[in-house]
TrEMBL record:
CDD domains listed in its UniProt record: MTHFR (cd00537)
Alphabetized UniProt keyword annotations: Amino-acid biosynthesis, FAD, Flavoprotein, Methionine biosynthesis, NAD, Oxidoreductase
Pathway recorded for this protein: Amino-acid biosynthesis; L-methionine biosynthesis via de novo pathway; One-carbon metabolism; tetrahydrofolate interconversion
Catalytic activity, as annotated: (6S)-5-methyl-5,6,7,8-tetrahydrofolate + NAD(+) = (6R)-5,10-methylene-5,6,7,8-tetrahydrofolate + NADH + H(+)
Source organism of the structure: Sphingomonas ursincola
UniProt enzyme class: oxidoreductase
SUPFAM superfamilies according to UniProt: FAD-linked oxidoreductase (SSF51730)
Biological classification of the source: Bacteria, Pseudomonadati, Pseudomonadota, Alphaproteobacteria, Sphingomonadales
Highest taxon, organism lineage: Bacteria
Molecular function, one GO term: methylenetetrahydrofolate reductase (NADH) activity
Family classification: Belongs to the methylenetetrahydrofolate reductase family.
Protein name: Methylenetetrahydrofolate reductase
Record Pfam families: MTHFR (PF02219)
GO cellular component: cytosol
EC number: 1.5.1.54
């Protein structure tokens, strides 16, 4: 029958976690609970998204700055080119640098209304590659960019999308994080293609643990990710069973990570949606453990 599915995983993986900026105090409390649960896994970094059209500019900044000042986890801020001039973007970047933030996830962003074509601000950055170049002139940030195993919907073809990824890395980005996907084969085909194109920078697979297929389908359509039929089948009949959906979600995502691990992947980037449970469970199945805290020295009563 072969080795048990999760046997032999040495815990030799690195992880990073993505959050969105909370809107309310309650959501902020949830995010901090999540961070408290995930922090002991020693993420290489955590990142905070930037709402469409810059709609979360202040909240993203406040969240990243708080993580940077109150935790030891390296925090990255997402930043997009949408609806802002180069000067505005450069000044946001400068304020990140001044707040001690050293890592930016540099993105073009999507048009404010879904389905419309992206139009650059007349005095703005036209695409992510230009943004990377601009950010490097503001400060020596570490920069991550986006990559698309199933090709970005705006790309002419898969090869031109890889050329674009290469332009972003050549412009100074250090690594890329992929859009979520549900087929390890799609990731491996993409890896073969970018390796053939001479890309050697780390490309971290973005893992979205799915517990609600209907919601995921809405986002997936816009970003070119395919949701396989077997996934629909798996969640069929579970609409009124949220706990079971979570269990199924963890199983599916952990199995995908295990297959990526077998193919040599050692860094996983989790789209947490600000919840700890699924990402924590998958990391655990991948063999990751929080270091054991050294036992506190016992205070000696009546010590001299
Ligand atoms: P780009 O790399 O600029 O490319 C966009 C498209 O244009 C590609 O198809 C590319 O091939 C094509 N292209 C670019 N330049 C050229 C050129 N010179 N010639 C020909 N074709 C070109 N969105 C948000 O709003 N906020 C976020 O916080 C956010 N975080 C994300 C995090 C990750 C890890 C990922 C994968 C995506 C994220 N997005 C976010 C979504 C992202 O903004 C969209 O996918 C957007 O449509 C493209 O952004 P990009 O940086 O990939 O753009």
């Amino acid at each position: 029958l072969g080795a048990p599915l999760f046997a032999g995983l040495a815990g030799d993986v690195e992880v990073s976690f993505e959050f969105f900026p909370p809107k309310t105090e309650k959501m902020e409390a949830t995010l901090w609970d999540t961070l408290t649960t995930l922090a002991p896994l020693g993420p290489k970094f955590v990142s905070v998204t930037y709402g469409a059209g810059g709609s979360t500019r202040e909240r993203t900044h406040a969240t990243v700055a708080r993580i940077a000042s109150e935790t030891a986890i390296p925090a990255a801020a997402h930043l997009t080119c949408v609806d802002a001039s180069r000067d505005e973007i450069d000044s946001i970047a400068q304020s990140y640098w001044d707040a001690g933030v050293r890592h930016i996830v540099a993105l073009r962003g999507d048009p404010p209304r879904m389905g419309e074509k992206f139009v650059a601000h007349p005095r703005g950055y036209a695409n992510a590659a230009e943004l990377v170049k601009g950010l490097k002139q503001v400060a020596p940030f570490e920069i991550s960019v986006a990559a698309y195993p199933e090709t970005h919907p705006d790309a002419d073809c898969a090869d031109s999308d890889i050329d674009n990824l290469k332009r972003k890395l050549d412009a100074g980005a250090d690594q890329a994080i992929t859009q979520f996907f549900f087929s390890p084969e799609a990731f491996f085909r993409f890896r073969d293609a970018y390796t053939r194109a001479g890309i050697t920078a780390p490309i971290l697979p973005g893992i979205l643990p799915v517990s609600n297929v209907a919601t995921t389908r809405k986002i997936a359509g816009a970003c070119g990710t395919e949701i396989p039929q077997w996934m629909n089948d798996l969640f069929e009949g579970l609409d009124d069973h949220p706990t079971t959906r979570q269990l199924v979600a963890a199983t599916v995502a952990a199995e995908m990570c295990r297959r990526l691990y077998s193919g040599g992947v050692r860094h996983f980037h989790f789209y947490t949606l600000n919840r700890a449970e699924l990402s924590f469970a998958i990391c655990h199945l991948l063999g990751l453990r929080a270091p054991k805290v050294a036992a506190a020295p016992v205070l000696q009563e009546n010590a001299a």
